[in-house]
Amino acid sequence: MTERHRRRHKHKHEHKHEHKRKGSSILREWGESLLIVAILAIIIRSFIVAPFKIPSSSMVPTLEVGDYIFVLRFPYGLRIPFTDVQLFPKSAERGDVVVFDYPEDRSKDYIKRIVGLPGDNIRYEDNKLFVNDVEMPLKSLGKRTYFLSDDRADVSGLFRERMINKDYQVLRKETSIKDGQWTVPDGQYFVLGDNRNNSRDSRFWGFVPQSYLVGKATIVWWSWDAHKESLRGERIGKFVE
Predict the structure, then answer these.
(1) pLDDT tens digits, residue range 63-81?
(2) Active site residue 228
(3) 3-state secondary structure string, the chain?
(4) pTM here?
(5) Catalytic one of 112, 156, 199, 216
(6) Which CATH class is domain 54-235?
(7) pLDDT tens-place string over residues 170-202
């Protein structure tokens, strides 16, 4: 083999190794990038914001079946994933719409409105809400037809309810599905669905501990009407009141 051939062979050999090194470097960079993205996604979902789909009509008219919302994870403290530990816990407020671990099956997330704080006396009578013996006033807004998650239609009265310093809309009928009186224990909350005659809530299964709070509902980012098979464009960007 001549000197010229040896140099050509050496150049090809070096070029081949250089190509392999570049390929390995690109794969390593891609792997590192994907790992960073995955870690950031876990951090964001666990501590900052997470998506949530509304599966039932228990929060109509505030939230419709098929709404997709963002839930802020930090307003009530930073909850360590897979534990009940909350760093820097902060109390919720009356009227907050919250996502929480369902107390009877913590593998499920529920969404309801907080109406009772620790120490409050809650009374629900004749489909009217009383907080510390003060009736929360209702203003009639007419009738509302809506569809249940199984696509059946239902009609209820539409009202605006005033709670201390916050008002929001609720659905209710003339008769109540559950009356009672409760005193909220320390570190826990009493929650109701805004669709008062179609919600299983604290009236049935009790209180929600502070450590079970997942986050606060904030905004609708997508909404699909399965009954009409169409997008509810007017709901996108709607803040949860």
Answers:
(1) 999 999 999 998 898 777 7
(2) no
(3) CCHHHHHHHHHHHHHHHHHHHHHHHHHHHHHHHHHHHHHHHHHHHHHHEEEEECCCCCCCCCCCCCEEEEEECCCCCEECCCCCCEECCCCCCCCCEEEEECCCCCCCEEEEEEEECCCCEEEEECCEEEECCEECCEEEEEEEEEECCCCCEEEEEEEEEEECCEEEEEEECCCCCCCEEEECCCCEEEEECCECCCCCCHHHHCCEEHHHEEEEEEEEEEEEECCCCEECHHHCCCECC
(4) 0.83
(5) 112
(6) mainly beta
(7) 999 989 999 999 999 999 999 999 999 999 999
